[in-house]
Amino acid sequence: MKDISIGLVGAGTVGGGVVKVLSKRLDFFRNELGLPLRLARIADKQISLFKELPVGDAVCTASADDILNDDSIQIVIELVGGKGFAFDLIMEALKRKKHVITANKALIAERGPEIFECAEKNGVSVYFEASVGGGMPVIKAIREGLIGNNVFSVKTIINGTCNYILTKMTVEGLPFADVLKEAQARGYAEADPTLDIEGGDSGHKAAILASLISDGYVPFEKVYREGITSISAEDIRFASELGYTIKLLGVIKKNNSDDQLDVRVHPAMLHDDHILASVSNVYNAVLLEGDSVGQILLYGRGAGELPTASAVVSDIIDVARNISASSPVRVPMGYYSKSKEISIKQIDTITSRYYLRFTVVDQPGVLASITSELGKHGISIASVMQKEGYEDSSVPVIILTHLASEKGIKDSVAGIEKMSFIKDKTQIIRIES
Amino acid sequence: MKDISIGLVGAGTVGGGVVKVLSKRLDFFRNELGLPLRLARIADKQISLFKELPVGDAVCTASADDILNDDSIQIVIELVGGKGFAFDLIMEALKRKKHVITANKALIAERGPEIFECAEKNGVSVYFEASVGGGMPVIKAIREGLIGNNVFSVKTIINGTCNYILTKMTVEGLPFADVLKEAQARGYAEADPTLDIEGGDSGHKAAILASLISDGYVPFEKVYREGITSISAEDIRFASELGYTIKLLGVIKKNNSDDQLDVRVHPAMLHDDHILASVSNVYNAVLLEGDSVGQILLYGRGAGELPTASAVVSDIIDVARNISASSPVRVPMGYYSKSKEISIKQIDTITSRYYLRFTVVDQPGVLASITSELGKHGISIASVMQKEGYEDSSVPVIILTHLASEKGIKDSVAGIEKMSFIKDKTQIIRIES
User: Fold this and answer.
1) pTM for this structure?
2) In the CATH hierarchy, which fold is given to the domain comprising B347-432?
């Protein structure tokens, strides 16, 4: 059989990982799987990166065009990142009938429909296992392993940076800003951490997972996103006293009552015995629920050089098997199209349980005023915690509600915040079960 | 495209589940995946089972021959169980160039080489996702999702019956026999529970997983197996006091030091913060460790009508995609062959940490004699627990060791058991980390 030639664009951390993982397994792929893969070219503008890689000079080039123009290359791996050059590269590769493998969650989430349409038109495919959950084969699980199911719920810890920060805050009682600095020093957070800590990265991944389970297209910009920057060490301590852990959670729920998909990313309180509550540090986890299979959890490292490379290499093998079987579109993505856009539930229309932390002046009648306002909006209280011993002029009042409407919560909090005893913005955290 | 016709043999619990799951998803498979599946025939000697199924009479038959003889049927699903008729059925189907899907772990583990050889010779394939871990796509994860890895370690809770029994014993402090009876009454244990509680079922699954990660053939009969019948409520209580949980564990480890694979099934103590320690009741979990991906956990229901059917249906789709792409042996199984038998480590040559419970007469010098004998065999003690307040003539002495050789442990326990103060057989439980 003729070699299957691969062109890799992007020789950074993940690109380097792919070269390492692939080199180790080439003989196995050739001899045991019958797939004669060849890493034909590696392109990166930053040619100094090549020095770190165990490949010959002839393989390396500063120009991705050398890969696009090489007709013998059948698979292009895009590990450049970003949404400009990477998008053009992917589209150009597809137009030249090359299969594409990418780890670019932003691109799949934001421009997936154009990409998949172009792939279909050219009879090639796009694989993106590494875009969600690093080395966990979660996209394969949804598209293949659980294909007999209507997957109606996903709850996921999908951003290692945020999970590391929240774990550190929980274990060491430190404030957000201090832990972020430490995470940056250790390389667990970027110099500009916005995309992680504001929920954008988790939102990209949630949009992809939501599209996959709903056989339609969930636009990233319609996914409600709330980051972890407002979570205080105090919230984490109170949660812990109440038997809860705070995680940045991606939540996707199909509702039977309406056709709208509930997709959102926000900090959530999970009871300590919830299986996701024990997912700590940089680990990720995806809890899927299907109508046949029940609950399935995948857990693993969601990022990093080698785990992400592991996912890219599994895509390479899938594509190589497709090529050797002449079945380029084995897993059709036709549904990931603007014409199949899924209607998303507005955040104000969801129902949830809530944790509310009011900051109030310690004076008689405060609790009565708060609870009365909540009652007016039909919000039923599950528990109240008010602490002695605050020497400040203000004290926290914590209320956990039963199931309530988001709108009712927001309206009543707005009402309460007009009262004179309120000293600060109220913290609202959704409780997931 | 021509219909892809399926023949199902075995209309029991899982067979019925497959009919239900398949019926619900047929339109989706046809319209979205382009796979026109048709459940052409269902065979079962016990024709009364057909009444429960949502299929027409014309589909049902008492004779599997009607499926074998039907040239239009391309996929045969074997859900009969057992090792006699089921084996003959599978071999006959393969010889007639039909693809086979089975949930039969005993057959794959014990006669896999013959089955896979026959499939290869006839240019068809055998899929068996449902044989391990019910609805968890663990076989797909190893063969496809983690194909970029050398998976060098597997630790798994893979038998729901045993996990249910041990969980109940732990939570309620009840003895094994009482919990077994209750599990039988609830349908979580068979009338004859031997295969589950003696470790045979877990052994079958461990042999399959071991073969898959080692790209060779691990014969079932060489897998060391120890069941849970000797685990007492006392062991579980002592473990708990020491911060450990007892689970029936499948352990597979590739050793760098020699070429032998360590494969075994036995009760094991796991520290309470081990991720597998919190896998309770009928849930299963597989903790895989690969050289690229690091730790990956899959968790879900390992048995039951619909979870198992979910796995069978994912196999159906894989086979149907192979058929429609004319790539029948997409995932080659040539290594699962007697000529590629993997050498298995003898249990006496392993090293582990151990929990030892001696039953002794409460008299001076006992602990000195025990520890001295252990010391003679080079066994280093990590902790000792001896309890007051036993009114019996005998009291338990618990010792946790550091890493020790299995042979050293067995030799020293044999030596200690010759001493006059020993009143009962010593309990030995391996500690896994």
Assistant:
1) 0.96
2) Alpha-Beta Plaits (3.30.70)
